[in-house]
Design a protein that fits this description.
Blueprint lengths: L18 H13 L10 H4 L2 E6 L7 E6 L4 E4 L8 E3 L5 E6 L2 E6 L2 E5 L2 E5 L5 E4 L5 E4 L2 E6 L6 E8 H12 L6 H16 L10 E2 L15 H9 L3 E5 L2 E2 L4 E2 L9 H4 L24 E7 H12 L3 E6 L10 E6 L3 E5 H11 L10 E6 L2 E7 L7 E2 H9 L4 H8 L4 E4 L28
Parallel strand pairs: 1-13, 16-23
Antiparallel strand pairs: 1-12, 2-5, 2-9, 3-4, 3-8, 5-6, 6-7, 8-11, 9-10, 11-12, 14-15, 14-24, 17-22, 18-19, 19-20, 21-22
Helix pairs in contact: 3-4, 3-5, 4-5, 4-9, 4-10, 7-8, 9-10
C-alpha cells in the first residue's frame, strides 16, 4: 500500500502514555476510520521500496527499539504522535483480534493500524519472541495480516539501503565488478518487478522476491556497490527490463520462455553458452535421494500412489521441461520445476539444484547428476564472479548476461514508474518462478 507522507516527526505526545492516549486507545475500535491511500509520486516511487518483513512467519507480537534517535508512533489519519520513543526504549507491538496494539509497561493503545517513523532515517531494531533481531531504516506500517492471526509488517525502506542489503544477501562474493553488477540488477528488479501484492507492498523479504535482511546484514562492499551505481538500471530499447538472476548456469543460460511456460520471449533473456561458470562449485553436482521418501512425497502431491517417474522433454539447451509420473493406474506429466520443488520442500535433506539433470535408480536410492543452480535465466552470479576475477567490469558482465541492454540512469528513463511484467502464470501444478535459486 502506498503510504501517506510522514517523514516529519511531529511534537511529542503528552508523556509516554498520557491518560488521553490511553483513552484514545480504548476508543479507536469504534472511531478509527480506514485511512485514505495516497499514490506515490514518480520521484518518490524511485526513492523507496515497500517490503513485507517476516512474511513467512505468523508473527503475533514483536518488540521495536529505536537505536540512535527518537521514533514516533502515529495513527493512519496523521496528527501528533500518540507515543514517542527515545533511543533504546522499547515498545511491544501485537495483534488483538482485528486490531493492533502498542504496549509499553502496563498500558496499551489499540488501532486498526499504526505507522512508526524514526527521526532522520535513524535505524531501529525488531526483535521476535524467539529473540532473533534485525535492524532496519525507513518507516514501518503495522496492521493485522489477512487470513491468519499474525501481523503484517511493511518496511518502507530507502532504495539505497534496500539494494545494499539485497546485494549482501543474494551475492556475497568477494569481488568489485560482480558486486556492482548485482547492485544494478537488484535495483532494476526492486523498482520494475513490483506491485504483485494487491498494492499492500512491493516485495517480501525472502526468496519469493529478493532476500532482504535489513541494515545489519550489509557489508562494506555491498554498500559501496550500491553507492557507486546509484540510480543505474538496466533497460532495453529505453524500457526497464525484467532483471531476473540465479546462482550457477552449468555452462549454458536459458531462454525465459523455455523455463516459464507461456511467457513471452524476451530478447534480452536469451540463452547462451557460458564458459565463465566452470569455476562454480555448483557447475556439476550429484545427489542421492531415498527412493521411498521421494515416491511418498510425489504421492502426497498427486493424491495418488506414484510408483516411479520418467524424464520427459528437454529445452533446447538441456534443462528438463517435464517429468512423467508413473501412478498405479495411469501416467501423468508435471513440469520439471514442480518435480524439483516437491523434492526440495517435501523430502528431508534432499536438494535438486536445478532442472538440468539426469537420474537413475541404484537399489533403494535415486541418483541425480546435474548442472548449475537455479532457473538459468538472466545473470549468473558465479559467472559474474568469474568475469570479475578475469578483469571484466560490471558493464561487461551485464552486457554478457542480458543481450542488447543499456545501463541508464533513472532520471533518463521517461517511462517511470513502469513496472516489468512477471512471466505468465504457470499451470496449477507449477512452482512460482523466483529470481535467486
Amino acid at each position: 500500500m502506498h503510504w501517506p507522507e510522514f517523514h516529519r516527526i511531529l511534537r511529542p505526545a503528552a508523556g509516554p502514555f498520557s491518560p488521553w492516549t490511553v483513552l484514545l486507545g480504548l476508543l479507536l475500535l469504534g472511531l478509527c476510520a480506514p485511512h485514505t491511500v495516497l499514490a506515490q509520486s514518480t520521484s518518490d516511487s524511485t526513492d523507496w521500496v515497500q517490503v513485507r518483513l517476516h512474511h513467512e512467519a505468523d508473527v503475533e507480537s514483536i518488540r521495536l527499539t529505536p537505536e540512535q534517535g527518537p521514533l514516533s508512533v502515529l495513527l493512519p489519519s496523521g496528527g501528533a504522535p500518540i507515543l514517542r520513543l527515545e533511543p533504546n526504549e522499547t515498545v511491544t507491538l501485537g495483534r488483538r483480534q482485528s486490531d493492533v496494539y502498542a504496549r509499553r509497561g502496563g498500558a496499551r493503545l489499540y488501532a486498526r493500524s499504526f505507522r512508526l517513523a524514526a527521526a532522520d532515517e535513524q535505524p531501529w531494531t525488531l526483535t521476535l519472541p524467539s529473540e532473533s533481531t534485525r535492524t532496519y531504516t525507513g518507516h514501518l506500517r503495522l496492521r493485522p495480516a489477512e487470513g491468519d492471526t499474525g501481523l503484517q509488517l511493511v518496511n518502507r525502506v530507502p532504495l539505497q539501503d534496500y539494494v545494499a542489503s539485497v546485494v549482501a544477501a543474494e551475492y556475497g562474493l568477494d569481488d568489485q565488478a560482480g558486486t556492482r553488477a548485482m547492485a544494478v540488477v537488484a535495483r532494476t528488479y526492486a523498482l520494475f518487478s513490483t506491485k504483485h501484492y494487491d498494492g499492500d507492498y512491493d516485495h517480501v523479504d525472502g526468496t519469493a522476491s529478493q532476500v532482504y535482511r535489513g541494515t545489519n546484514a550489509i557489508t562494506e562492499e555491498a554498500r559501496r556497490a550500491a553507492r557507486e551505481t546509484a540510480g543505474q538500471i538496466l533497460t532495453y530499447n529505453g524500457e526497464p527490463i525484467q532483471a531476473v538472476y540465479f546462482s550457477s548456469s552449468g555452462g549454458h543460460t536459458a531462454n525465459n520462455e523455455d523455463v516459464w511456460t507461456g511467457s513471452t520471449s524476451l530478447p534480452y533473456l536469451r540463452g547462451k553458452e557460458d564458459p565463465y561458470d566452470e569455476a562454480s562449485p555448483k557447475h556439476r553436482w550429484t545427489t542421492r535421494i531415498d527412493r521411498g521418501a521421494l515416491l511418498q512425497a510425489l504421492s502426497l502431491h498427486q493424491g495418488a500412489s506414484v510408483n516411479g517417474f520418467l524424464l520427459g522433454d528437454r529445452t533446447p539447451h538441456g534443462r528438463l521441461a517435464t517429468v512423467e509420473l508413473l501412478r498405479s493406474n495411469d501416467e501423468t506429466e508435471i513440469e520439471a520445476s514442480t518435480f524439483r520443488s516437491i523434492v526440495n520442500t517435501r523430502v528431508d535433506g534432499a536438494t535438486l539444484k536445478s532442472t538440468w539433470f539426469d537420474a537413475r535408480r541404484e537399489g533403494s536410492e535415486y541418483v541425480f547428476e546435474g548442472r548449475g543452480h537455479g532457473h538459468g535465466v538472466g545473470l549468473n552470479q558465479w559467472g559474474a564472479h568469474a568475469m570479475a576475477e578475469a578483469g571484466k567490469d560490471y558493464r561487461d558482465i551485464l552486457s554478457f548476461y542480458y543481450s542488447g541492454v543499456q545501463i541508464r540512469h533513472l532520471d533518463e528513463t521517461s517511462s517511470l514508474p513502469a513496472v516489468a511484467q512477471e512471466p505468465s502464470t504457470a499451470p496449477p501444478d507449477s512452482t512460482t518462478p523466483r529470481i535467486g535459486w
